[in-house]
Amino acid sequence: MFYKSSLLGACFVALTFSQMALAKDLKVKISPEISEISVQHNGKPVTIKRIQDQKNTVVEDYALTSRACPPFCVQPIEVAPGVTTIGELELLDFLQRKSDGDESILIIDSRTPDWVEKGTIPSATNLPWTKLHPQSDGYEPIEVEGILTLQFNATVSDGIWNFSNAKTLVFFCNGPWCGQSPTNIKALVNLGYPAHKMFWYRGGMQSWQSLGLTTVKP
Predict the structure, then answer these.
(1) Rounded Cα distance, 199 and 82, in Å
(2) What's the predicted TM-score (pTM) here?
(3) Contact 153, 146 (CB under 8 A)
(4) Are 94 and 105 in contact (CB under 8 A)?
(5) Residue 44 vs residue 18, higher pLDDT
(6) Closest Cα partner for 161 from 147, 170, 143, 149?
(7) Predicted confidence (pLDDT) at residue 205 exceeds the cutoff of 70
(8) CA neighbor of 38 nearest in space, from 109, 102, 96, 111
């Protein structure tokens, strides 16, 4: 527990102080100290900031208040034991550190491609929930091994996984009513991926869009 609280505290402090110099005369800032951050998306710089039009409203895809449950059920705050749930400022810190060259961090959009086409968080990598879920049509064990080794930096020998050098994964999907990123996380927990190396942005695109933060399309 000390590890988690210390890490999140350090993330928040690092983000706050590293971005103070970026403060501009914007009417709608991310926080009192943070106006915007710059990240890399597909090798190109992207500035993340909030929409400045104070009459702007949430896009239609996230305007619905009621969706059929199941499958669109409200998710708990703790998605799995040991996995830390984070908010926007903590996510922004992960994004900034990744953009600054920290290759141990991977931001994962767990949604299916049709949702990603509508817009995603800058610097995120799309890993549809179907790729890791054994009961889905898109599940292929050999592909899962490739994801774990080539993308997540895990190793395997004689069927035994070693996650000592595995990346820190930050997951999100459509929001508190979306089960796609929780499905990815639970699948990895079942494979033995360390819970303390996984973080969950529960608010997802619903919260990101409601705050008017920058999105990008593939």
Answers:
(1) 9
(2) 0.87
(3) no
(4) yes
(5) 44
(6) 149
(7) yes
(8) 96
